[in-house]
From TrEMBL:
This is Transketolase-like pyrimidine-binding domain-containing protein. Transmembrane segments: none annotated. Belongs to the alpha-ketoglutarate dehydrogenase family. Signal peptide: none annotated. NCBIfam families: 2oxo_dh_E1, PRK09404.1, PRK12270.1. Keywords: Oxidoreductase, Thiamine pyrophosphate. Residues 581-786 form the Transketolase-like pyrimidine-binding domain. It comes from the Eukaryota. The lineage of its organism: Eukaryota, Fungi, Fungi incertae sedis, Zoopagomycota, Kickxellomycotina. CDD domains: TPP_E1_OGDC_like. InterPro entries: 2oxoglutarate_DH_E1 (IPR011603), DH_E1 (IPR001017), KGD_C_sf (IPR042179), ODO-1/KGD_C (IPR031717), THDP-binding (IPR029061), Transketolase-like_Pyr-bd (IPR005475). Its cofactor is thiamine diphosphate. It holds the Pfam family OxoGdeHyase_C. The keyword Coiled coil does not apply.
Length: 939
């Protein structure tokens, strides 16, 4: 036994002495790029080494070291965590003292450097029995801990010392316990009231997990006490209404008004609204400390956990704003803002967005300085028991991928829940990293109140129906402790119920209010129709200035020789000549001019700094030191900031993150670029539930730009297509455009620009108009370096703007045109080249018109262009995409409705296909050649 113990102790000692003991994700390295952008980061926490006396004591008490280590690593498996007692308390062999030769309960030990529990006597020693009791109380009670998986020794030691040294802290005072009780009772009273008044409504109540409201209240109080002024909260539907009504001060009359079938917004606003489990509130709370705590609860869609990356992005953007406007030089990331995410147990394990969002938590450009996660663990998902819902021991195990500590707590004990939150908060404050609280509860009803759960879980629900509620259990405890009386308890229930009755009666006089376009958003408007023409030109001198700045680097940055010649020198030459400006240069000119005007830009995606096609180079990496320079951040002292955020290999979470950034501030231009256009497929949930519909559902505007490289160039089935037809399908544009007064107020814009000047104007238009709309750009790949696809600085000068339609410039005699071909995207250049190869008579018979923006549908511009060709008898929509993809399905009915005398619209392009395109090169080339042939044939 003793040999085993000594061998284990030796391993522990050698681990501590290992200079690589802090490998994994270093505590502060995650912020290195944030420092480069001017943000101060907290100092890395270094736990002091053991003293020589402590080390000697550890060696002499090796068996005790092993026993304590066993409790820290496996004690959670011997705990009393399940309120339903479905999971039986286990006997864990590793926790048997005899395993380590500790058989005498009266043996005395010096625990200095071994255990931080306050069990020493006056001589500094403790008995084996006292130590064992302390270990069981700390690690095997109603709260359990997992932190031995953390690779950083300093974190583990801090957690062990904090958990152990605070284990004997006195119970909360009477006022605090009374507060807990009132929260629990009000939550139960609300659910009872809802059942009585709105019994046929799926409210997803908190019954069985009422202690979650105690957890949040304690967390809010700790935030307020510590000087945090902003909290960003995301949560699903379970218990949302309880928390809204009580903690977040959402007016009950507003909820009841909606439940009676009315809209939650004024009728004058163009909003479709949402269900009650998605509504939100953003109160300012004070728990008796200096500054208020402003809480922003974000709207959530039905798709589980999709709100999590949005919380992270919103919080990051707000954190940057707080930092840039804070005069306190001590302020570091995470000091003033905290992220809070509430999860369901089955969703936490099952939804990939959880893993993706956790994966962002310690990355530069994405970290919030720590998020507190609360899993409301009902031990069941809809009708699926835990044994079928996950392959791990705990639902929280997925968080170990970022080495987050995990605190499990039995939801039947609200005071222990509050303690768990205090430990989680202190860890986050100390280390600025994510922490998980696994709140183990139950669900009193089924998935919703109209469900019958005993169809599939009869034993679980026999137990649930035979046991008292969490508020009733806690009421018994504080009655026994004389904290309240029976009369107090009854008065608390009745007073809140009376309050709800009064709020229900007030519904008849309730007038909905809107909380949009306030604060930083004031001055913007809700759009009422599409505005496509706005002067976004910039003086040529300014363009040349910012263009030169975009490739100016400090002498300390040694740029790659190829970039010096082919990127820097080539750009300077184009700028000097004022012509043949390529795509990357025009994009830099848009960025630089906006930055100079005070806007900030966040460019995010996989490899965006360089660009997937090595075209952008918005950042230069020193070839000697690997230091990074972002030249556009050195235009002027008063400029905005360009954040070049090379993301991890995620789309769903990263796009959700950028959407969160976009709804936080209208003064940031957030751009997400997919490595290839089809990468947006894995982010479809964010596109469907937030980007395309967020303004309609919740009145939340977003100026997010999605750059999706698109074009059929032999890349095969996936990387050829951005699937922009899906975005068009989501656009709310009328099908019939024949009426003169047709109004278009698109939920988002979809463009396929073909010249650098067009992308310049598109990006500037995002910020220069007085509202925000998402913009989807099916961007180029081959056009990035195509000599024909260039622009002059004159096309970006004052008086110029984005053109939804570029008129035909190939047919020299409009009166001779008999066939008008409409096209979008890079295919235009193939058609133009083929057009030039035809004889003059044929060239004059065919006009080729470019649609640069498909949504909103460019009705007026197309009508003007069609009118130029009075003798045209044939109209063609031509695309390189398959017939069931691309723009055809969207364009066809709308274009037909404005053609003269209901002229037919002919289709030229690939036929229907299950995949976006063939992967056989010979067939691909043959199809492409056939498209070009058909455009000029039979005329």
């Amino acid at each position: 036994m003793w040999k085993l113990a000594l061998r284990k102790s030796s391993c522990i000692s050698s681990y501590r002495a290992n200079p690589l003991r802090s490998t994994g994700v270093p505590l502060r390295r995650c912020y290195h790029e944030d420092v480069a952008y001017g943000y101060r980061v907290p100092k890395k926490f270094e736990y002091p080494d053991y003293s020589s006396e402590q080390l000697r004591n550890r060696q002499q008490q090796a068996a005790l070291v092993c026993l304590v280590g066993a409790y820290r690593s496996t004690g959670h498996r011997a705990t009393d965590l399940d309120p339903l007692r479905l999971q039986k308390k286990q006997t864990i062999p590793e926790l048997d003292p005899a395993r380590y030769g500790l058989t005498d309960p009266n043996a005395r030990f010096n625990i200095d450097g071994i255990l931080a529990a306050p069990v020493r006597d006056e001589s500094g020693y403790s008995s084996a029995a006292e130590i064992l009791q302390a270990l069981n109380d700390i690690y095997c009670g109603h709260v359990a801990f997992e932190f031995e998986h953390i690779p950083d020794t300093a974190e583990k030691r801090w957690l062990a010392d904090y958990v152990e040294s605070t284990s004997k802290e006195s119970r909360p005072g009477s006022d605090k316990r009374r507060r807990f009780y009132e929260l629990l009772v009000r939550s139960e009273a609300f659910d009872n009231f809802m059942q009585k008044k709105f019994g046929q409504v799926k409210r997803y109540g908190l019954e069985g997990a009422e202690s979650a409201i105690v957890a949040l209240d304690e967390l809010f109080s700790l935030c307020n006490q510590s000087g945090i002024t902003e909290a960003v909260l995301g949560m699903p539907h379970r218990g949302r209404l309880n928390i809204l009504i009580d903690l977040l001060k959402y007016p009950p009359r507003a909820l009841f008004h909606k439940l009676q079938g009315h809209a939650e917004f004024p009728e004058s606003l163009p909003a479709s609204g949402d269900v009650i489990s998605h509504i939100s509130s953003s109160p300012s709370l004070n728990y008796g400390y200096k500054e208020n705590l402003n809480i922003t609860m974000l709207h959530n869609p039905s798709h589980l956990e999709a709100v999590n990356p949005v919380v992270a992005g919103y919080g990051r953007a707000k954190q940057m704003y707080l930092y840039d406007n804070n005069t306190d030089p001590r302020c570091a990331l995470g000091d003033r803002l905290i992220g809070i995410q509430i999860h369901g147990d089955a969703a936490f394990t099952g939804q990939g967005v959880i893993m993706e969002t956790l994966g962002l938590s310690n990355l530069p450009h994405f970290s919030l300085g720590g998020t507190v996660h609360i899993i409301i663990n009902n031990q069941i998902g809809y009708t699926t028991p835990a044994t079928n819902a996950r392959s791990t021991l705990y639902t929280s195990d997925i968080a170990k991928l970022v080495n987050a500590p995990i605190i499990h707590v039995n939801g039947d004990y609200p005071e222990e829940v509050a303690r768990a939150m205090r430990i989680a908060f202190e860890y986050r404050r100390m280390f600025r990293k994510d922490v998980i609280v696994d709140l183990i509860t139950f669900r009193r009803w089924g998935h919703n109140e109209l469900d019958e759960p005993s169809f599939t879980q009869p034993q679980m629900y026999n137990i649930i129906r035979s046991r008292p509620s969490v508020p009733k259990l806690y009421e018994r405890r504080i009655l026994e402790d004389n904290i309240i009386t029976e009369a107090d308890a009854e008065q608390t229930r009745q007073s809140f119920t009376k309050h709800l009755e009064a709020e229900l009666a007030a519904v008849k006089d309730y007038i909905p209010q809107a909380d949009h376009l306030k604060g930083k958003w004031s001055g913007l408007v809700m759009s009422t129709e599409a505005v496509t023409q706005i002067d976004t030109g910039v003086a040529k001198e300014t363009l040349q200035e910012v263009g030169k700045k975009s490739v100016s680097v400090d002498d300390a940055i040694k740029v790659h020789p190829r970039l010096v010649k082919h990127h820097i020198q080539a750009r300077l030459k184009r700028l000097e000549e004022g012509k043949a400006v390529d795509w990357a240069t025009a994009e830099s000119l848009a960025f630089g001019s906006l930055l100079k005007e005070g806007y900030s830009i966040r460019l995010c995606g996989q490899d965006v700094g360089r660009g997937t096609f090595s075209q952008r180079h918005a950042m230069f990496v020193c070839q000697e030191t690997e230091n990074v320079s972002v030249p556009l951040n050195n235009i002027s002292a008063a400029q905005g900031k360009l954040e070049v955020a090379n993301s991890n290999l995620s789309e769903l979470a990263v796009l959700g993150f950028e959407y969160g950034v976009s709804i936080q501030s209208p003064n940031i231009l957030p751009i997400w670029e997919a490595q290839f256009g089809d990468f947006n497929n894995t982010a479809q949930v964010i596109i469907d539930t937030y980007i395309s519909s967020g303004e309609s559902k919740w009145l939340r505007q977003s100026g997010l730009v999605m750059l999706l490289p698109h074009g059929y160039d032999g890349a095969g089935p996936e990387h050829s297509s951005s699937r922009f037809e899906r975005f068009l399908q989501m656009c709310n544009i009328p099908m019939d455009m024949s009426e003169k007064d047709v109004v278009q107020n698109p939920n988002m814009h979809v463009a396929i620009p073909t010249t650098p000047a067009q992308i310049f104007h598109l990006l500037r238009r995002q910020m220069k108009r007085n509202y925000r709309k998402p913009l989807v750009v099916a961007g180029p790949k081959t056009l990035l370096r195509l000599s024909a696809a260039t622009s002059s600085l004159d096309e970006m000068s004052p008086g110029t703007s984005f053109r939804p339609v570029i008129p035909d410039v190939l047919a020299t005699n409009p009166d001779a045109v008999t066939r008008v071909v409409f096209v979008a995207g890079k295919l235009y250049y193939d058609l133009a080249k083929a057009h030039a190869a035809q004889d003059e008579e044929l060239r004059n018979k065919i006009a080729i018109v470019r649609l640069e923006e498909l949504c909103p549908f460019p009705r007026q511009e197309l009508l003007r262009e069609i009118a130029r060709f009075a003798d045209a008898s044939e109209f063609v929509w031509c695309q390189e995409e398959t017939m069931n993809a691309g723009g055809y399905a969207f364009i066809c009915p709308r274009l037909r409705s404005i053609l003269p005398k209901n002229a037919p619209l002919r289709y030229i392009g690939r036929g229907p296909l299950a995949a976006p395109v063939t992967g056989i090169s010979s067939i691909f080339k043959s199809e492409q050649a056939q498209i070009l042939h058909d455009v000029f044939a039979n005329i």
